[in-house]
Each structure stands twice: as structure tokens, then as C-alpha cells.
């Protein structure tokens, strides 16, 4: 082992140093004057950002927050176009797009002094030595029709049961929530989660046995859930908590379960843009989203897992349930090849 192997990573230094800075209050300078902070995020996040996050932040810091809701790739394009003269200060984007932003040197690392709540975030939610962090994690399980299935599924293996021939709906690998199906298949083949992500050969072979059970493969969630709610489909998997449980709350005859083999955490990332016009305020915004107080308020309405370890898991999820994390850097490197093979082997 060479000498560089003994160098602590930025994450270990960051977490150690944070323990002594977690009690720091917001910088007084932020309270001294009203400033505008522009945040780029997902259009679907706009209601809870503007109803929960923005009022709390503006009251605490005396600042004005402008939230621009769009897709993650659109926010990336804005950052690319304005490199060197950014007008946005913070982005809330999916992890695969965060990786692209890091590669183009568009993000400012989260540091101990500037985001003290990093000390309370689960290590798996801090990425690339603090380049960004997850403030919430929607989770993936199996959605099922409660009228056609009197007993909810208990295992991912039930999707492969021949008795559900023509009754299963799955997302395409082009959808972010579709990727873990490949890893589920690897798990069911006897691999550990790391091995299932590193080598998807076993996963693809297992998926071949699922084809006869498929009703359809979707790219648009609304159409897929119509099939489930109308009883034409029995299960959708993997299914996103933030969508399935919202439909359940609206009265749809469906529910979402956490299979025995575990669920998959999906990314909701937050980062400070390099060259942000309101840098101190930007780090303060990130810090608030990583704090237990806001995450406790957001986990319920967004049907997500909090990443702050002081916030308990949602009701119905066992304390010992495995929450599998996805290696998004690996996904970014191999996804195009996986999709090409998927289109060839899984076409109906």
C-alpha cells in the first residue's frame, strides 16, 4: 500500500471537522440586508419549495428566494451557458445530472464551515467528497392494486411469478426509476448489491424470465398508473414513492410496499453553483435543506426518506429494512450500453 492510501478523504476530514462547527449560527451578515437567491430545481418540487422551504428561509435570513422549476438537464444547460457569470446560486437536481455538472467544473464543494448540517447526514447521501448532497430520497418499491391483490407482494420475486402473466408493468431503463430493476434481477440471482451493479450480466439473464409477465414497459408514469388503478395491471415495479403514494393519497386503489430484499433510494441532490452570486446565502440554503427541522416537514409531503439521521423513517418502513444506494457514477458510465441491450432484449 503506498503512502497516498493513508491520506484521509475530504469526506472524512469534512465529517470530523463538522462535529465542532455544527453549533454555528447563521452568519450575521445574512441577516443585515435583503438579498435575492435564485434556486433552480424540478418543476414538480415547486409547491412544497414555495409553501414550506421558502417562507421558513426568507423569515430566518431576511432574503428573497426565487425558485425556477424545470428539468434537471435544463438547469444544467443554464449553468453551462452562464459559466463565469452565473445568476443562479443553488441547484436541486438528480444525481446523474450532478455528475455531469461536476465534470464540467460547475459546482462549489460543500464545506464544513459553510454547511454544518452535513455532520448529521447519512454518509451515503454525500457524494464525490462533498460536491453535492441528497436532502431527500424518494424510495422504490412495488406498487400493487389493492382490489386485485388481496395479499400485498412481499418480495421482488413475486413480479416474476408465472401466475402474473401479462399483469406486470415496469419502467423503461430510459427512466431513472427503471434502472434498479436490473439490480433487482441481479439480487434475485444471488448477487450482493455491489456485484449486481458492477456486472449486470446476471441481471439481464434474469430479466428474460420476466418478459412473459409484462403487460407493458412505460416511459410515462401517468399511463402506467392508469393501467394499475383500473385493475388491468397487478403490479408496477420499481415504483417511485413520491408518485405511487401521492396517487394512493388521492384515493386510488393502490399501495406501495417495501420488499423483503430492500428498497432503492432515489436521488434528490442539492449543490452550490461555482461562482454563485450569493455564495454565503447559497450555502445557508443548502444547510437548511440538510437540517432535521425542514427534512421532518418535507419527508411526509414528498413521500421520501430524510437523509438527516435525526429524522425517523416514514411509518410502515421497518427500522432494519435495507435501503440500497445506487452507484450513479457507474450508471453514468454504462447506462447507454445498458439501454442499447435493453432495447434489443426486452422489446415486447
Précis, in short:
It is globular and about 60 Å long. The N terminus is likely disordered.
Uncertain ranges: 1-32
Q: Which whole number gives the mean pLDDT?
A: 89
* Bulk shape: globular
Q: Provide the gyration radius in Å.
A: 21 Å
Helical segment count: 13
Main sheet properties: 14 strands, mixed
Number of strands: 14
Describe the structure.
With 348 residues, the protein is α/β, with parallel strands linked by helices. Helix content is 37%, strand content 20%. The protein is built from 13 helices and 14 strands. The chain has helices spanning 10-18, 28-31, 46-61, 72-81, 95-103, 179-188, 193-198, 201-207, 221-229, 241-249, 279-289, 292-302, 328-345; strands at 36-42, 64-70, 90-93, 107-108, 126-127, 132-145, 168-171, 214-218, 235-240, 254-257, 263-265, 268-273, 304-306, 323-324. Strands 1, 2, 3, 4, 5, 6, 7, 8, 9, 10, 11, 12, 13 and 14 form a 14-stranded mixed beta sheet that branches. Helix 3 links the parallel strand 1 (36-42) and strand 2 (64-70). Helix 6 packs across helix 8. The radius of gyration is 21 Å and the shape is globular. It starts with 9 loop residues before the first helix and ends with a helix.
Amino acid at each position: 500500500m503506498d503512502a497516498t492510501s493513508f491520506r484521509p478523504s475530504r469526506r472524512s476530514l469534512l465529517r470530523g471537522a463538522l462535529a465542532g462547527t455544527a453549533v454555528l449560527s447563521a452568519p450575521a451578515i445574512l441577516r443585515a440586508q435583503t438579498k435575492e437567491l435564485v434556486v433552480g430545481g424540478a418543476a414538480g418540487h415547486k409547491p412544497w419549495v414555495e409553501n414550506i422551504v421558502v417562507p421558513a428561509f426568507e423569515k430566518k435570513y431576511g432574503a428573497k428566494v426565487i425558485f425556477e422549476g424545470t428539468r434537471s438537464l435544463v438547469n444544467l444547460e443554464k449553468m453551462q451557458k452562464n459559466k463565469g457569470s452565473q445568476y443562479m446560486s443553488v441547484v436541486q437536481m438528480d444525481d446523474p445530472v450532478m455528475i455531469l455538472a461536476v465534470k464540467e467544473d460547475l459546482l462549489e464543494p460543500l464545506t464544513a464551515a459553510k454547511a454544518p448540517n452535513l455532520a448529521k447526514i447519512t454518509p451515503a447521501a454525500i457524494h464525490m467528497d462533498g460536491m453535492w448532497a441528497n436532502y431527500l430520497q424518494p424510495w422504490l418499491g412495488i406498487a400493487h392494486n389493492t382490489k386485485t391483490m388481496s395479499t400485498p407482494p412481499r418480495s421482488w420475486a413475486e413480479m416474476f411469478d408465472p401466475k402474473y402473466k401479462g399483469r406486470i408493468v415496469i419502467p423503461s431503463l430510459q427512466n431513472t426509476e427503471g434502472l434498479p430493476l436490473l439490480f433487482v434481477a441481479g439480487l434475485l440471482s444471488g448477487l450482493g448489491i455491489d456485484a449486481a451493479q458492477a456486472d449486470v450480466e446476471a441481471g439481464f439473464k434474469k430479466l428474460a424470465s420476466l418478459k412473459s409477465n409484462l403487460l407493458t414497459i412505460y416511459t410515462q408514469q401517468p399511463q402506467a398508473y392508469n393501467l394499475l388503478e383500473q385493475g388491468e395491471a397487478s403490479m408496477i415495479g420499481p415504483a417511485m414513492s413520491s408518485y405511487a403514494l401521492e396517487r394512493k393519497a388521492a384515493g386510488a386503489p393502490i399501495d406501495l410496499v417495501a420488499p423483503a430484499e430492500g428498497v432503492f433510494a432515489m436521488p434528490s441532490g442539492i449543490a452550490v453553483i461555482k461562482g454563485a452570486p450569493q455564495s454565503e446565502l447559497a450555502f445557508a440554503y443548502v444547510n437548511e435543506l440538510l437540517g432535521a427541522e425542514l427534512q421532518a416537514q418535507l419527508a411526509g409531503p414528498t413521500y421520501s426518506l430524510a437523509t438527516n439521521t435525526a429524522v425517523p423513517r416514514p411509518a410502515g418502513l421497518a427500522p432494519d429494512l435495507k435501503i440500497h444506494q445506487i452507484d450513479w457514477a457507474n450508471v453514468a458510465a454504462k447506462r447507454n450500453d445498458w439501454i442499447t441491450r435493453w432495447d434489443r432484449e426486452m422489446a415486447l
